[in-house]
Amino acid sequence: MRLDHSVTAERSIASRLGPGIVTVGSLAGLLAIWWIAAIVADSRVLPAPPAVAEAFWRDARTGELFFHLAMTLMRVAGAFVIAMVVGSAIGILLGMNREANRFFDPWLILFLNIPALVVIVLAYIWFGLNEVAAIGAIAVNKIPNVVVTLREGARALDRDLEEMAKVYRFGLAKTLRHVVLPQLQPYFAAASRSGISLIWKIALVVELLGRSNGVGFQINLYFQLFDVAAILAYTLAFVAVMLIIEFLLVQPFEAHSTRWRPKRARG
Amino acid sequence: MSNLSKPIPPAGGPSALEVEIRGKTFRGADGGDVRAIEEIAFQVAPASFATLIGPSGCGKTTTLRIILGLDPDFDGRLRLPDDGAGRIAAVFQEPRLLPWRSVEENVRLAMPDADAGRDIDQLLSILGLDEMRSRYPSELSLGLARRVALARAFAIRPSLLVLDEPFVSLDEQTATRLRTLLMEVWSARPTTALMVTHNLREAVQLSDRIIFLTERPSRIRGVHDLTTPRAERDSRWREATLSTVAKRYSGVL
């Protein structure tokens, strides 16, 4: 019995550490490839990691880097909230109402296929070079994707539970909170996962075209100065911010909201 | 219809459940109409237990759905106990629990807000769910999940209890145990109850009145009242009753 215990304990430690070690190893491998390539190429356009770190420190010391990161993060957060709220509302409505869906489906296909650049340019022309146009343009780019995902979720809602809620007189608020939203949770998770990465990429283009701060603005600036190390420093810094959000906010929230699932089904 | 095994005054509404369905038609997938119910009319006395029995697909579940208000598209009329003022509880064929809420939350969520803090310890302990309060439905066997569904139904103190084959696809031992539990909880506070089953033994054991339905489109084939108090229903009585009923309504056993 004792042997069994220690074996399973070891295995569980190994399996817990395993993925972490693999991740670190894989990132170290990527870094090594980059480093070797930079040494071999020996060129301004492909700086080695220390040069990027130096560029990072240069802008971090003055606080400039954090200011631009914060501006971009603010736009990403604003656009994300708007896109999720508006997109979910429309998606759930279309999923539940067949006629509305038939009518609006062509609109949805149209919006899904408008290039992000067109939306951004039009938003700046129509609404001016301001924050509202910037955040609005990012959100509009994301909304159709959220609609499509949440529409699938609303179509898959369990009729049996809906009837149960009706018989037991749950009322609208209780039904939404305890019956409908938990069923949509995986769809919210999918939409926000794919959403947050899409949104920050679009946010950079928005900043490049019409804002005077943010990571996108800085990258445009360093592009004109041909400073690849600084471009990489800003990119990696923002990727790091997004990873922190993923690990500190998204994953704990998801673990909490799927705690009722049988353990083996948890991702 | 008097029943000596029920000394407690009826807690269900003062008026009987009156069901009068004069026709129910479904639109089939191919566009054709399917007549499910021709004419079903019956009453269930206050605080008594009635059972609907009929062949598969004869419209028993449809009748229950009409009573539950889930299918308003029918000809006829309904009169609920308490004239609809009280609450209706349903135990469906599948337990229909919320997988993301614990056992206790599932029971409490059904209770009216005014009643939210009420003590349900006794109910859970009669049903053997004491230890299960914080478990999630995915961790329960079908038999346990059915008990939770029963707890939820009784927790709201309904004026009408509707059960749709609540013991189907359980092994006989578990089903028998659950039937006993159902009677125990129900007798503590008898409420007007209507159950659908295709198990005549179950009907004879539990009911004050058995309503037999014909094949689709269904009509009432006959009504059989059982006046023997439940406490006196031993296995000999049950076998005798079963054979009497089976003789009168051939093919029901």
Automatic annotation (TrEMBL), chain B:
<dbReference type="Pfam" id="PF00005">
    <property type="entry name" value="ABC_tran"/>
</dbReference>
<keyword id="KW-0813">Transport</keyword>
<dbReference type="InterPro" id="IPR003439">
    <property type="entry name" value="ABC_transporter-like_ATP-bd"/>
</dbReference>
<keyword id="KW-0067">ATP-binding</keyword>
<dbReference type="InterPro" id="IPR027417">
    <property type="entry name" value="P-loop_NTPase"/>
</dbReference>
<dbReference type="GO" id="GO:0005524">
    <property type="term" value="F:ATP binding"/>
</dbReference>
<keyword id="KW-0547">Nucleotide-binding</keyword>
<comment type="similarity">
    <text>Belongs to the ABC transporter superfamily.</text>
</comment>
<dbReference type="InterPro" id="IPR003593">
    <property type="entry name" value="AAA+_ATPase"/>
</dbReference>
<protein>
    <submittedName>
        <fullName>ATP-binding cassette domain-containing protein</fullName>
    </submittedName>
</protein>
<dbReference type="InterPro" id="IPR050166">
    <property type="entry name" value="ABC_transporter_ATP-bind"/>
</dbReference>
<feature type="domain" description="ABC transporter">
    <location>
        <begin position="21"/>
        <end position="240"/>
    </location>
</feature>
